[in-house]
Amino acid sequence: MLRDEWVFTYKIETIAEATTSNLQFHQERFKWWKDKKEQVMAKIREDGLEIDETIVMDIFHLKAETGSVVLK
Question: Helix or strand or coil: residue 64?
Fold first, then answer.
């Protein structure tokens, strides 16, 4: 049987539960990573460094020529 011929039957409640669980998992991971980034950035600033995060956005646009680290 070819993959495009597969047929599955699920109750909508099962799909809704799985979707809700998946969304919650990803939201929790996002919050964890966001909090971790804030902790790291606070430590960096505490150590006297200034970070310009624009280079991250430039990488997505294939322009990694900007961004800076400033020592104070």
Answer: coil
Query: How many other C-beta atoms lie within 10 A of the C-beta of residue 58?
Result: 14
Strand partners, 50: 70
pLDDT tens digits, 17-51 = 999 999 999 999 999 999 999 999 899 989 988 87
Angle at 48 between CA 44 and CA 53, to 5 degrees: 50
Would you say the pTM of this structure is higher than 0.70? no
Which residues are paired to 49 by β-bridges? 71
Structural domain boundaries in the chain:
12-71
Contact call for residues 36 and 17 (beta carbons, < 8 A): no
Q: How many CA atoms lie within 13 A of 19 on its CB side?
A: 7
Cβ–Cβ under 8 Å, residues 53 and 38:
no
